[in-house]
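Good day; I would like, with your permission, to put a structural problem before you. A protein sequence and the structure tokens that stand for its backbone fold form the material at issue. I would ask you to consider whether the tokens describe a fold that such a sequence might reasonably adopt. I set the record out below, with my sincere thanks for your time.
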Amino acid sequence: MGKKKGNKAAASTDDFLQTLEDFTSKENWDKFFTLRGNDDSFEWYAEWPQLHDSLLPLLQDSSSSSSDSLQILVPGCGNSRLTEHLYDAGFRDITNVDFSKVVISDMLRRNIRTRPELRWRVMDITKMQLADESFDTVLDKGALDALMEPEVGTKLGNQYLSEAKRVLKPGGKFICLTLAESHVLALLFSRFRFGWKMNVHSIAQKRSKLKTYMVVAEKENSVLLHEITSAFELVSLGRNDSQGSGMREAVESENKIRRDCNNGSDLLYSHEDLKLGIKGDLAELTEGRRIKFTLGGQGSNFSYRAVLLDAQKQTEPFVYYCGVFLVPKTRAHEWLFCSEEGQWQVVESSQAARLIMVFLDSSHSGATMEDIQNDLSPMVTQLAPRNDDEARIPYMMASDGIKKRDTVHEVTSPMTGKVVVEDVVYESAPSNLEDLSTSSDLAFRRLVFKRTEGLIQSEALLVEDGEILEQSQKEKTKNVSQSKRKGNKKQNQEPSRPLMRVSHDYLASSYHTGIISGFTLVSSYLKKAESCGTMVKTVVIGLGAGLLPMFLHGCLPFFSIEAVELDPVMLSVGKDYFGFTQNDRLKVHIADGIKFIRDITNSEASSEESSNIGSNGDSTTHNTQGGICPDILIIDVDSADSSGGLTCPASDFIEETFLLSVKQALPQHGLFIVNLVTRSQSVKDMVVSRMKKVFDHLFGLQLEEEDDVNVVLFGLCSESVISENDIPESAVILEGLLKCQRLETKQSIIDATKKLKCWK
């Protein structure tokens, strides 16, 4: 891919390149460029002989300016020779920027004599000190790709694209050379919608299996939404390579969004789109206007999902001309906030002519309300209607929905940090438990990590423990009798509170319900296993409070469950506060989940054999490596660092190498389940793309229609799988297998099967 010299220095940089995991780190790049030296260029993507035929016509047609006066910006220039080739082709006005002082110094020394007009500046491309509308072309060769590391999410990519759009003149072009990963294309296409013409080119590349694509976005003085065009036949892509297939799917998907929008369908707009006037003049109030959009990007520390609502009757006397209503993550799923009808009720009760409803999520958990308000304030001011009084914009907030909260236990783990067990009573009971809440408030026990305070790790219903309570009453009676004999006549003692225990036959977490509903996809195998008396081995990576393994143990008696947990503190918390117990069908391994799975696939052939039910119901055996192959593997772990947009699971669990290990570990009838929590569409697209690449079939279950943060993914290894039309029949089989004491729990699982969708 690059030009490599036959010396030790080149070899050492190649070795370092293999470990350059964080492409957004200035220190890593400084080290990389120091090792290579100023005479050893490195071309990540297509080189000049492959580029010039496609690139030069675009530049020559970029404006009415001649080539020597065309103003070109090359962000993240590195030590590529692209700029030098452009200079030699007649383009003199080129500004090169990179945040590595090492490479800028090297490139300046390399070109100061032979190409004196080239400009080199040390600069962060997400915060460029360059004037608005000052360039005819922004030429990106891999800069966006480097910023879009999965662990980092879309924040840096968003900031960079905002800057690129800002510095381009009307009629200017953003030319992006990319390897076209799905999460990169998702961001790129969505950020250049209104007022941009977009075209895609394919560039052949020698000595590499990877193809370079060139995406060109031309800035218009309009708000039209064009479909993406291509300089080649899209239908020809993907016949022989997954990279081309990914590009074709991304373009077709984006064009469908654009067609639907042009035909009147709504979409999730960006703040930039609204400032262009896509939904009318926001300085004026429009009765009943409702716009879903995103806030954040350049100058903001966070990103937000929001809804702008102009009161349905503008004749009412309003207390506020414009207000902001913050919705905490714990209440975002409620009808009042996630439905259109409920949102209008909030507008009416707020007495605001315009209400901007902002939804908080786990990425905001470490911020104070003051931080949030300070971050939102400049953006909200731009969205406020024209008001001669210049009244302040008030911030309102829904309560967290908790009526009562008691901290039961706190412990600090060296691995997880501060862990809190708390008992809470909600202001309103869950809809499927309303019949139980008539006599007294329902209490729930929750497990919370302070590092992701907005995310409830585990939640369980508390019920009265009849057996323990009866024993307690006997002890109390005995003590009272003894007191009377001693002459103790103390009266009016406070009534004792009933002793409570965790209910293991109720699922408080909707994603647990979603996970189990996915068993529908292999319900025929499960039925055969039960009929033959064969145990179904299920591995759960991530114990939490142990609620999911305990539920599976109780409701599916033919399951043998192994939970893998890295932090031993979690096992202690589960035992002491959530009633978790082990037996011959439920065991816990204190181990690294990644290593646990890879040991199955990488160790020498195990002497153990596991039973496998064939399609005809006969019992056969197959050898496994590193132990018995799991029939079902569930990934239910959070990420220690969610700043990159990935809250669950940790990024290691969605790396392609790990997914391949999973597929190798599972038998043909196996089922792989991942609980995915991310606010970033590009991260979600990236995970889905990887799973599609590895597994023969992929199903997805979106938990909430109005909130696309949480999705459960199901990967299957078998080439033959049920279709969506077969799911109702398979759900009936699963319903018969579930031995739930609570009928409402079983019904919730079966209802969730209706949301299962085939994605591959």
Notes: The chain has three domains: 18-263, 271-396, 510-605+627-758. The chain is about 35% helix and 25% strand. The first strand starts at residue 72 and ends at 75.
